[in-house]
Structure formats: C-alpha cells, structure tokens
Specification:
single chain, alpha/beta, Rossmann fold, 2 domains, 8 helices, 8 strands
Length: about 270
C-alpha cells in the first residue's frame, strides 16, 4: 500500500508540475503531518518542514519531530509564535485552536513567501474534510487547491485517505510519533497542544494557558505510566479519560494532582 501511495503522489506531482516547485510542509510532528512529509520526500519532491511552537508546546513531541526530519534529511524550520498567539487569543473566548490556526496560517503564508517557497503542504486526511470549508470548494482535485483568498496553493496528499488508511500507511512506514497519551478532542487518536483543554466558553488568559499546560503535563505523566488516555479541562477541572482503560486507581491518582490545582484556584 505504501509503495502504491508514493507512486500516486509521483504521478500527481508530474501531472501538476510539482517536481519544479519548492514545498513547505506545516509539520506538527503528529501522525498525519509526519506521514505526509514522509510520502512527499519519498516521491522525490523538494520538501522542507515548518513547525510552529509556543511556550506551552509539548517539548517531548518537538524533540521527536526534530529527530524525524533529521532522519529524513529534510530541512526543518522552527518558529516561535508565543507572542502572536497571546495577541490573537487573550481576552477572547475559546476554543483557542481557532485563534491559533489563524496565527499559524498567517505566519506560514508569509514565511513561505519570504523564503521562496511555492506551495504549502498540510497533513489533512479525509476525516478532516468538512463540506463547505474553503479548501474543499475548489472545483478541481482537492489535493491541490489554489484559492486566491488563501494566497498560496495548498497541497494535501492525504485528503482522500480516511483516518484508518492513514493509520495503516503510518504503520507500514514505521512512523511512531511520540505520544503524550492525551485524551484528545476526537474519537480517533488526536493529540496536540495542552491549550485545547481550556473550557470553550471561558475568556482566554495567560494564566489559564499556564494552568492548562502545567496541570495536563502532570496528568500526562500518569497517562503515560498506565498507557491510558487522560486530560483535564480548565478551569472546570473536568477529567476526561479513556473509559475502557481508566480504572479507579488511575482516577484516584489523577484526582490527587487535580485537587492541588483546584485548591490553588479557590
């Protein structure tokens, strides 16, 4: 399956003139973007990686991402968006991911333009496709969209593959991203930034961002120890745990951590 997918990307690249383009992958270090980066590189295209981070980013996943690109021999750019995220999100309601995505897309566009890249690439798969979303209104092949409002062509090599196929391809490629064992925001395994656990209707503050990071980092230690999935929303302190692998002892251990933060908030 992996060989066939690489061949399809090569054919698509030849048909659309991508062999002569410089491509910049928006690379989080997660499963989808790692596989997309791997496939584009194996297809022989000129690909570099761009990773945004801030002071609340997981350090473990960032280190894994840097090792992964080094092994692939892909040039890897790291950009700190802490100040831009604070300006965009502070004082507004969550979810913070909406505000963060605006910051990342804006910075990715300008980074690509200033550094001579022709195309941005993303790891979106078919489960990320939302009917009516801007990228999916393109009348041609949605793997490569050229919408003036975005300002730069977007290449999404996995957009026609559902999450379960991405999982199989990732396994076949031997890609095993570092896992924090977060609960995630969706039914399929979805990790990322601890700031996603700020309660949706709360006004975002730097203090809440700090709590979301520090509390969930401590909780992730428990989750990793027991190989379960566990996260905590703030400031409601709602605990979210993978039901079939979270027993009473794990929950008690996690509650002891949560209680210290709950007391500090009173």
């Amino acid at each position: 399956m992996l060989h066939e997918t690489v061949r399809e990307i090569k054919q698509f690249a030849d048909k659309n003139g991508l062999q002569k383009k410089r491509i910049l992958m928006m690379f989080s270090g997660g499963k989808d973007s790692s596989l997309a980066l791997y496939l584009i590189k194996k297809a022989g295209l000129d690909i570099s990686a761009l990773t945004f981070f801030h002071r609340w980013s997981w350090k473990e996943t960032l280190r894994w991402a840097m090792k992964f690109t080094a092994k692939l021999e892909v040039k890897h750019y790291l950009v700190d968006i802490t100040e831009a995220l604070l300006r965009e999100a502070t004082g507004r309601k969550g979810p913070i991911c909406i505000h963060c995505k605006k910051v990342m897309m804006r910075n990715a566009y300008w980074f690509a333009r200033f550094n001579g890249f022709d195309i941005l690439a993303k790891g979106d798969n078919a489960n990320d496709k939302i009917i009516g979303a801007l990228l999916d209104q393109w009348p041609g092949d949605i793997r490569l969209t050229e919408i003036p409002r975005i300002g730069i062509p977007i290449f999404r090599p996995l957009i026609k593959h559902r999450a379960e196929i991405v999982e199989l391809l990732t396994e076949e490629a031997g890609i095993r991203p570092y896992r924090m064992f977060e609960y995630g925001r969706r039914k399929q395994w979805r990790e990322g930034c601890p700031l996603q656990y700020i309660d949706r209707e709360r006004i975002i503050t730097p203090e809440l961002m700090d709590i979301a990071y520090s509390l969930n980092y401590e909780i992730s230690k428990i989750a990793r120890k027991y190989k379960t999935r566990l996260s905590v929303r703030v400031p409601s302190f709602e605990m979210m745990c993978q039901s079939y692998s979270c027993d009473e002892n794990i929950l008690k251990e996690a509650e002891r951590v949560v209680s210290t933060y709950r007391k500090a908030e009173k």
